[in-house]
Recover the amino acids of this structure.
């Protein structure tokens, strides 16, 4: 079977299996009993109806309307397939709805309407206003799309956005803004030649005018040649606005000296000879799909300095509407905007363009491994999977809506709103906020043992951008510098990040002598100390913390936990400090759950279990959460004499005698810990209300197993492990940790020990 046949079958299977289509509807409220039914439907639903009748704005409170978009089409201009009809367009519209949900958590219905008359189609769309918070018009042929959008925007009091026009125009605007920045040119000075007089082409030209391009410098061509004064073939009022009063008639005649070629037409329209006659550092946006107006390598053969974008994902600088529409709708919906105006679109452009000029996010780099993602000719616009898009773009759009007076529900604190949006993609963001705030109280120096790891480098970049901490990297400078360059990071060794080179560092003698002094009576000779300080980066980092040259060590991105723990304990386990246990925070869909001890004690004694519980309570409070600790076992409130239950009961006895100030209960099964009703049936009058938020086990295998199941099968995001008992002087992460996870551990390590006892 050919590659084309394989691709076709894979695409069909994707749509058909395991169930047809790409969407389903799920309830957001429980419907488990008669009480739920009475609230969801009759008679309880009448109360919500009456509230909305009295105040239509209450629909945003009692229904899903404020987060619901309709993608509407009549199937007359679907992708490159043309007029395939409403029904055949449904897979595309379902796909659009999936993108809304994936990238901006916006619920979406696709509505395919079998109506070719633009005015009647507009009537149908307008009649849908009570159901939706916004309308996305899609794949309606030109010039009908202009008519439909105009009528709907005039009559409807919710945003109406034709993505084929404005979404394309916004992303082209962002790419053009950055391309001109790279080329050293200005909008007001450039000559623009465009091919394609359809909805997207006209909208892009309109947007370029808003960005500063002069109308007299725009030359529009279509299949019939140049749009010029007096032309009658295939003209409409929208296209006529770009008519040039000239004797020239072809693309070949007007391409001379063009700074920007904007192609939304078809393959092969722009020839190499034409490119050779464009201005120096020409900007070529060849956006036809699947085959662009000219292939990038063909254009560069005659213009090596060309800056090129296409509509394809297999070339750099893909102009993709998904960079825009989920986020502009997110901002518009969240402020109850009545429209999406020019200011909101320009804010979207600025946000997208600024992100490309910033350091690439670690998450986007992971999604596009092997691609060049440093701002420049090959990277003009960010990637769709850059998780910062929603926070940057949506908050900018919301601000513009408020400033221009179209927001029915203004947001009082835009910074908090942006943090909330970031929290929707960075699951740890909101929960980590108290820790980050505490870490800002006093600058601390964090030494990373595995400084050559790209994840560590990206975490160091984020630490510089988001905290006041100073990263210290242990590693070979030539390796680190090469990886910094490859990743497009703004780290500068010896400037905004410190370096320890284990192969050649002036402090080497001080370090091995310190280590030997600490370990001389534990079998470590000077020769062994010298070797360790040349090769063991965890030991080097621990020595730095011991000597006061760093405040906390972060290690463990490779290797086994207890191997690292051995050196941490050797060097830093003194003056009352010793490892009490490892605590992992698992961020789940329904909230946080802490697990301990996952790594330190394989079979903890009752006294060690008490230390784990006290440390966990102390650390949980750092996150602004009041601990509710469940001691978990196969045994349930004393019903088994064997196993771990006895040690847990003994630990509870110690806590009872000491009068600790946190809530705890046990020993019990995990389901009993998490289900308050079940717990009440088994032990009426127990001392815990609601679900436990900390699970403590008397066997590391059990704790680690629960942690890994939650991470791999439950979709949990781990923060940690947090090494308890070491005064925040060291933390050992797991090899699967991400750059974001390292940033979170860095924030934990960056909090002075006085903040949590």
């Amino acid at each position: 079977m050919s590659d084309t046949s394989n691709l076709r079958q894979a695409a069909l299977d994707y749509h058909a299996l395991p169930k047809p289509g790409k969407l389903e509807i799920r309830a957001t409220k429980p419907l488990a009993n008669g009480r739920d039914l009475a609230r969801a439907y009759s008679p309880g639903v009448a109360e919500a109806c009456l509230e909305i009748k009295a105040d239509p704005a209450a629909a945003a409170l009692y229904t899903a309307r404020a987060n619901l978009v309709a993608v509407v089409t009549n199937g007359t201009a679907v992708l490159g397939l043309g007029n395939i009809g409403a029904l055949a367009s449904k897979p595309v519209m379902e796909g659009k709805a999936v993108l809304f949900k994936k990238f901006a958590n916006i619920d979406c219905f696709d509505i395919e309407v079998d109506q070719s008359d633009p005015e009647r189609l507009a009537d149908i769309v307008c009649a849908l206003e009570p159901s939706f918070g916004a309308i996305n018009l899609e794949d309606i042929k030109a010039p009908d799309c202009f008519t439909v959008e105009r009528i709907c925007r005039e009559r409807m009091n919710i945003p109406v956005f034709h993505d084929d026009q404005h979404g394309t125009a916004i992303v082209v605007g962002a790419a053009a803004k950055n391309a001109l920045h790279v080329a050293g040119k200005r909008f007001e000075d450039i000559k623009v030649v465009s091919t394609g007089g359809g909805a997207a082409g006209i909208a892009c030209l309109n947007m370029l005018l808003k960005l500063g391009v002069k109308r007299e410098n725009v030359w529009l061509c279509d299949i019939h040649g140049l749009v010029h004064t007096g032309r009658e073939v295939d003209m409409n009022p929208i296209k006529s606005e770009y008519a040039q009063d000239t004797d020239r008639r072809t693309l070949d005649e007007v391409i001379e000296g063009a700074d920007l070629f904007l192609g939304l037409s078809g393959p092969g329209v722009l020839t190499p000879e034409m490119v050779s006659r464009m201005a120096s550092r020409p900007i070529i946006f060849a956006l036809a799909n699947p085959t662009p107006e000219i292939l990038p390598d063909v254009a560069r053969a005659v213009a090596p300095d060309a800056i090129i974008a296409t509509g394809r994902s297999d070339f750099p600088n893909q102009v993709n509407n998904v960079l825009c529409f989920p986020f502009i709708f997110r901002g518009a919906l969240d402020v109850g905007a009545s429209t999406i105006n020019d200011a909101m679109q320009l804010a979207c452009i600025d946000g997208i363009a600024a992100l490309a000029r910033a350091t690439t996010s670690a998450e986007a780099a992971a999604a596009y491994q092997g691609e060049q993602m440093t701002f420049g000719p090959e990277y003009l616009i960010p990637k769709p999977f850059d998780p910062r898009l929603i926070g940057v773009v949506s908050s900018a759009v919301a601000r513009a809506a408020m400033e221009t007076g179209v927001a029915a529900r203004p947001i009082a604190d835009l910074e908090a709103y942006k943090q909330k949006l970031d929290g929707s993609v960075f699951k740890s963001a909101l929960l980590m906020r108290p820790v980050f705030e505490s870490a800002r109280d006093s600058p601390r120096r964090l030494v990373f043992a595995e400084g050559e790891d790209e994840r560590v480098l990206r975490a160091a970049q984020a630490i510089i951008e988001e905290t006041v901490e100073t990263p210290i990297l242990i590693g070979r400078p030539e390796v680190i510098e090469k990886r910094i360059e490859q990743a497009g990071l703004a780290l500068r060794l010896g400037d905004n990040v410190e370096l320890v080179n284990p192969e050649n560092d002036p402090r080497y003698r001080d370090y091995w002598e310190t280590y030997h002094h600490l370990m001389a009576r534990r079998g470590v000779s000077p020769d062994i100390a010298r070797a360790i300080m040349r090769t063991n980066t965890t030991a080097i980092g621990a020595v730095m913390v011991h000597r006061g040259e760093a405040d906390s060590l972060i290690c463990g991105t490779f290797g086994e936990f207890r191997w690292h723990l051995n050196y941490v304990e050797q060097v830093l386990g003194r003056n009352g400090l010793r490892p009490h246990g490892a605590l992992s925070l698992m961020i789940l869909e329904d909230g946080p759950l802490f697990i301990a001890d996952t790594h330190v004690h394989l079979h903890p004694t009752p006294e060690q279990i008490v230390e784990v519980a006290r440390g966990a309570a102390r650390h949980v409070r750092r996150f602004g959460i009041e601990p509710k600790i469940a001691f978990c076992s196969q045994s349930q409130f004393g019903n088994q004499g064997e196993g771990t239950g006895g040690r847990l009961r003994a630990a509870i006895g110690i806590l009872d005698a000491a009068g600790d100030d946190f809530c705890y209960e046990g020993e019990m099964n995990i389901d009993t810990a998490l289900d308050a009703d079940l717990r009440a049936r088994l032990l009426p009058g127990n001392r815990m209300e609601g679900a436990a938020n900390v699970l403590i086990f008397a066997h590391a295998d059990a704790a680690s197993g629960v942690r890994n199941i939650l991470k791999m099968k439950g979709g949990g995001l781990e923060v940690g492990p947090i090494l308890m008992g070491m005064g925040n002087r060291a933390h050992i992460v797991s090899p699967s940790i991400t750059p974001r996870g390292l940033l979170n551990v860095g924030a934990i390590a960056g909090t002075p020990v006085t903040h949590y006892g």
